[in-house]
Amino acid sequence: MKVIEVKHPLIQHKLGLMREADVSTKRFRELAKEVAALLTYEATSDFEMETVEINGWNGPIQVEQIKGKKVTVVPILRAGLGMMDGVTEHIPSAKISVVGIYRDEETLEPVPYFEKLVSNIEERIAMVVDPMLATGGSMISTLDLLKERGCTHIKVLVLVAAPEGLKALEEAHPDIELYTASVDERLNEHGYILPGLGDAGDKIFGTK
Ligand SMILES: O=P(O)(O)OC[C@H]1O[C@H](OP(=O)(O)OP(=O)(O)O)[C@H](O)[C@@H]1O
Ligand SMILES: O=c1cc[nH]c(=O)[nH]1
Ligand SMILES: [Mg+2]
């Protein structure tokens, strides 16, 4: 599995602001979107290009365009919705495939509850977004589902990843690429990432 921890100053600065204990819902939501947009910039840097001829102001010219597969963004409900607009800011034509999974607070096991994928998803690059990769269970379950539906080209974007989650994801899905703003230290005894962000879903939706 290719893990890219993006150390760009804008990303690191914004992530630092998100870690403030008293960050407001509004600010957290804005920053989640901004960091997602910056991760998208990095995650699309290997998209294949082709030269095409167009009519320029002074006659025919050759320009570079992105070639080949189209994109579907896959937000994992709920918290993944907080990153979705950051991705579509740069890829406005992307179709959206929604996966609903929550993590059981006692067992930490993923519980799937919703799925609405675009048709012909196998023809698209899937860009899966979720702010937190903790045990990795929710992401592994999502990627299991996407592969069952035929996806072969998957990029994962998370704001913060725990080493434990990265290890589990590597074992389950070694073929994917993961982009993150930070590989944090560890999980605590309740499965929360340290130093982490706290409960990202609650912070984005204001449910606490
Ligand atoms: O790697 P894991 O151990 O599976 O944990 C990470 C998951 O937990 C959070 O979702 P949560 O279950 O809190 O749902 P929510 O987005 O609705 O708040 C987070 O957004 C991830 O989906
Ligand atoms: O640290 C964590 C772990 C799981 N889910 C979150 O929102 N935060
Ligand atoms: Mg949550």
Q: Can you summarize this structure?
A:
The chain is of the alpha/beta class and 208 residues long.
Structural notes for this entry:
The chain has 208 residues and is an alpha/beta fold. The protein has helices at 9-18, 25-43, 81-90, 137-148, 163-172, 200-205, and strands spanning 2-5, 49-56, 59-66, 70-77, 95-96, 98-103, 110-116, 124-129, 132-133, 154-161, 177-183, 186-187, 193-194. The strands form three sheets. Strands 1, 4, 5, 6, 7, 8, 9, 10 and 11 form a nine-stranded mixed β-sheet that branches. Strands 2-3 form a two-stranded antiparallel ribbon. It has a two-stranded antiparallel sheet with strand order 12-13. β2 and β3 (59-66) form a beta hairpin. It is globular. The mean pLDDT is 97. It binds 1-O-pyrophosphono-5-O-phosphono-alpha-D-ribofuranose, uracil and magnesium ion. 1-O-pyrophosphono-5-O-phosphono-alpha-D-ribofuranose (PRP) binds at residues 76-79, 102-103, 108, 110, 130-139, 165, 191, 199-201. The site of 1-O-pyrophosphono-5-O-phosphono-alpha-D-ribofuranose (PRP) has 23 residues, from β4, β6, β9, α4 and α6.
Topology:
Layout (H helix, E strand, L loop, with lengths): L1 E4 L3 H10 L6 H19 L5 E8 L2 E8 L3 E8 L3 H10 L4 E2 L1 E6 L6 E7 L7 E6 L2 E2 L3 H12 L5 E8 L1 H10 L4 E7 L2 E2 L5 E2 L5 H6 L3
The structure holds 1-O-pyrophosphono-5-O-phosphono-alpha-D-ribofuranose (PRP), uracil and magnesium ion.
The site of 1-O-pyrophosphono-5-O-phosphono-alpha-D-ribofuranose has 23 residues, from strand 4, strand 6, strand 9, helix 4 and helix 6.
